[in-house]
Amino acid sequence: MSLNTLEEIAEYIVSDGKGILAADESNPTCGKRFDSIGVESTESNRRDYREMLFRSSGMKDNIGGVILFDETIRQNAQDGTPLIELIKNQGALPGIKVDKGLAPLDSSPEETLTQGLDGLDERCKEYFTLGAKFTKWRAVIKISDDIPTDACIQANMEALARYAKIVQENNMVPMVEPEVLMDGNHSIERCYEVTSKSLNTLFKCLKDQGVNIAGTILKPNMVTSGSTAEAQASIQEVAEMTVQCLKENVPSDLPGITFLSGGQSDVNATAHLDAMNKIGGFSWKLSFSYGRALQQPSLKAWLGKEENVPQAQEALSHRALMNKLAANGAWNLDLE
Questions:
Q1: Distance of CA 206 to the CA centre of its chain
Q2: Exposed/middle/buried for residue 78 (C-beta within 10 Å: 0-12, 13-18, 19+)
């Protein structure tokens, strides 16, 4: 694969309905996932699990990029092959999470600001030499009656823009993730309002920093009802409001939008993506960057046992194919 420019890399990741496998869970998060299946979270178990995912046949043609955690980008498979080589052999590009997690915002302690700009340039230089082609930084926006504050949105979007500029200067594609959390009992209209404001602020900040939008990927939330809201919006309503929100706030020269699943069930995440692509009428590719919604069936099938590897790989391959079909607006529930 000779991909030389940021634009070529970004376009490749989302070409033909391909999306992203998010395998960048921190060790504590990975520990929680492993606890749910009774597997100890050791370095070798994490390696075996991710190697199993990366060797799944359904990676090929369906996955254009894989986001890794710092530990994983340095690991080798059991036979000594670097894990990033397994990813490249499947036709996907390796990426890396570069933020350093969340800290309380000084002016509003129940809100957070993502950390990690200190030393980011040096980290990017190393990750580039290790083979990373793209990076990810996640900002978190919570909704309740009195938040998010304007200060929280502004500070997080400025940090995302500064991060994106540093990454592009290091010849990698920045993935910007302004996640408006589903947690809460808010309406879909309230999620729309907060998501709209976050995206609008983000693209202003990216422009101010001189970020090349055509060499950037957006990883947003979908516009949904709060997870504990009594009235839950339908698949079609989520699709229509999300597409409308994006059309109002996202420039047309952005190559791809790869949604996070944000705690949705695996089938719902696929159904929402498919419904948006069936609406159509937008210039960017609408695809997926799912963690749990791609991995969960595989994790449940695996249970840490060698003999379960084929079923676990089949489970990941199935979800990857379903989401590729959804990214092309060609999925339906009967295919499940």
A1: 19
A2: exposed
In which element (H, E) is residue 127 found?
helix 120-130
The mean predicted confidence, pLDDT, of the chain is 97
Q: Which amino acid is at 228?
A: T
Catalytic residue among 133, 177, 179, 285: 177
For 263-282, letters b (16+ CB in 10 Å) and e give: ebebebbbbbbbbbbeeeee
Cα 316–Cα 321–Cα 322 angle in degrees, nearest 5: 100
Q: Give yes or no: 100 in active site.
A: no
pLDDT band, very low/low/confident/very high, at 283 (cuts 50, 70, 90): very high
Q: Which of 250, 236, 242, 261 is nearest to 283 (CA)?
A: 250
Q: What is the tens place of the pLDDT at every residue in 213-234?
A: 999 999 999 999 999 999 999 9
Side chain identity at residue 36, one-letter code? S
Residue 143: CB partners within 8 Å, gap ≥ 6?
A: 180, 181, 183, 184, 186, 190, 191, 194, 226
- Structure tokens belonging to residue 285: 């590719």
Strand partners, 217: 175, 256
CATH 3.40.720.10 fits 6-335, yes or no: no
User: Is there a contact between 215 and 9 (Cβ–Cβ < 8 Å)?
Assistant: yes
DSSP symbol at 35 = H
Domain ranges of the chain: 6-335
* Active-site pick, 18, 97, 219, 285: 219
The predicted structure's pLDDT at residue 1: 62
Among this protein's residues, is 25 annotated catalytic?
no
Q: For residues 294-320, give the mean pLDDT.
A: 97
**DSSP symbol at 177:** E
Q: Which two tokens stand for residue 286?
A: 């609408």
